[in-house]
Each structure stands twice: as C-alpha cells, then as structure tokens.
Amino acid sequence: MSVKHAMLALLSAQPSSTYQLRKRFDDSTGQSWPLNIGQVSTTLQRLERDGLVLRDDAGADDPAGGQPWRLTQAGRAELEAWWDRPVVAEQRGRDELVVKLMLATVAPGVDIAALIQSQRAATQRSMHDLTRLRRDLDADDLVGRLVLDHHLFIAEAELRWLDDVEAGVVRSAQRGRGAAGRGGAGEAAPAGADEASERSAR
Q1: Dihedral of CA 54/55/59/65: which sign?
Q2: Each residue of 108-156: pLDDT tens digit?
Q3: Residues pairing with 66 in the sheet
Q4: Percent of the chain with pLDDT over 70
Q5: H-helix or E-strand containing 53?
Q6: Containing domain of residue 102, as a range?
C-alpha cells in the first residue's frame, strides 16, 4: 500500500491537517489498514521535502493537528501519474505464505502436509469471520463492502491455491515411491507427503 499516494489522493479532495488526514484515511478504507499519526506525519514531511505538498499558511489552525496541508502542482501531477499507472503484481511485495511453503520444500524435517492443513484451517476461519462482517454491513456501506469483498476473494483464491499445492505434494510423493519401487535413486518425497497422499485417497 502506498501511504504517500493515499495522502496525495486525500489532499486532492480538500486541504487537511495531519490529524484530519489520519482520520479521513481510516474512514476511507473502512479502517482495514490503520495508520498511526507518526506514519502520516513522516509521510507528509517527505512529501513536503519533495515539493509535492505544502503547509497552508492562510488556513485556520486545527488545534488537534496544526495547519492544513495542500497539494502543489507537482503533487497533482504525481497523483495523476499514480491513477494512470496499473498496479503490477510484482510490486505488491513478497507473500509470506508463498515464501514459507517454498522454503518448506527444501528445509529438512518440515511436515508440509501439516503446514498446508494448518493454513487452510486458519484461512477458513478468516473467511467465516469476513462473511459474518459482510452480512452485517449496512446496505449503503460501499467502502466496507469493497474492502470485505476483496478480502473474501483473496481468501477463496488462497484456499484453491492450497488445494493445488497439496495435490502437487501428493504427486511428488507418488513419483518418489515409484522411483524407489523401480530401484532407482529417485527424488526424496517432501516431508509430510505420505500423510497428504493418504488424506487425498480418503
């Protein structure tokens, strides 16, 4: 998430103090990505350094957050470029779960099948919680619906991906047993593969 561009987007609507920006950000995102006031302040200082925002000396002081900030022309240009730039998957950061499973395939003694089962159970619990929250939303809460639906779609995709990973573990185990049965060296099956194969057979 780009806090920098979030601040620029909020300021494009109206000048705001540091405190107001933090509150407006929370309101705009359904409080799904909470920011502390220090993060907002540090981001604004960097934006000011880069000439993208400035203090509105003519504006009235906000006792809770100081003088309002406003966009510069350079800030508006940067924001427009951000609106026009698609978010590329490679820019979204490394997914910890993907990295964890990748490492589990090469680290000795890791029960990959148990790891997958544990993650699947956690994701299913998360989906139940999200579904309950989604059901309780007000009909007019567009922001809340957008955020919760996004989380639900990600959770559903993660469950399908975990199923595929588990199937891959089973196939790897079967290939390993087949090679061993033929007396070949074969690849060692990942830890936990036998358990995954048995569950799949059931």
Answers
A1: positive
A2: 888 989 999 999 999 999 999 999 989 998 888 888 899 889 999 999 9
A3: 62
A4: 79
A5: strand 53-55
A6: 94-201
Distance CA 73, CA 51 (A): 9
Q: Are 131 and 81 in contact (CB under 8 A)?
A: no
For 170, the token pair is 């089973």
Distance separating the N- and C-terminal Cα atoms of the chain: 42
- Residue ranges of the alpha helices (H) in 136-184? 142-181
For residue range 34-81, what is the model confidence (pLDDT) as tens digits? Answer: 788 999 999 999 999 999 999 977 555 455 557 899 999 999 999 999
Three-class secondary structure of residue 72 per DSSP: coil
Tokens 């099948």 sit at which residue? 113
- Are 17 and 62 in contact by the 8 Å Cβ rule? The answer is yes
Of 91, 119, 152, which marks where a domain is finished?
Answer: 91
86, 118: one domain: no
* Same domain as 192, residue 102: yes
For the purposes of burial, counting CB atoms within 10 Å of the CB of 175, is it exposed (0-12), middle (13-18) or buried (19 or more)?
middle
Among 56, 91, 126, which residue terminates a domain?
Answer: 91
